[in-house]
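Below is our example:

___
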Amino acid sequence: MKEELELLRQMVRIRRFEERCAELYSSAQIRGFLHLYVGEEAVATGVLSELDPQDSVVSTYRDHGHALARGVPMDAVMAEMFGKVTGCSRGRGGSMHLFDASHRLFGGNAIVGGGLPIAAGLALGHLMRGEPRVVACFFGEGAAAEGEFHEVLNLSALWRLPVLFCCENNQYAMGTAFAKEHAAADLALRAGSYGLAAWSVDGMDVLAVKESARRAAEEIRAGGGPCLLELRTYRFRAHSMYDPERYRDKEEVAHWRDLDPIDRLRNAMRPEFTDDDLAALEAEVAAEIDLAVATAEAADVEPVADLTRFVTSEVTP
């Protein structure tokens, strides 16, 4: 019950954070691009619950859930959304470029598939230093059509790099349905053609995700080489806040909403977890979000004098 409660708390934190971000974006307090993770919370929560602090994480432009599940403080994430200097990327990255070296979160990447070669480089470094670490690399199914996907899977298998590839198959690459983009619909089978251990997972079931991540991480740490999880999930909201979302049937969205990962876990925890327990959890999360927003609103933007800082290293090798 304790483990399930922490998983539920994390998914609720991500869901409510995203919903507040949508409100703040609509009121122009958050600007730029905004890609929400609503519906996919079980993936980040389940996978990252099985990683160690010394492991590395590479994310996508839909990265808020990964950052929160990784342990990046909510106030630092929210401040980054506001473009404030107290943000995890000093306000320079915004929604798509969350980065926190202290939590070994190496982006946030606006380029589709752009995190794949970064993950391979991190993993090669761990391997060469003899470090028993795992690099979790998140990417969408749209990235599986990119050249980086094939190149990185091939090299990772060839060099037995410690990478846990986490394909968040949310069924749509922007507005293009998965079946209209990929001739071969089984991404796990495609990864297997490169010699990777790979399997598909119900990405709407946080317990299934957690167990698969545990199994994969154990294999990787034992020297078995890279693994790929195809996490079949769904985003309940549009691709981004600019997306009019005219490409999905309402019936399809309703079907996936019936598989809501938060509701599924909450129902599995009954009767031990009561409505009063849920209300208390929601109140705790709401207070955390309110504080993060207030802190972000009160923070400063980066001084103009510092705008060229960090363009080059401040430390001479």
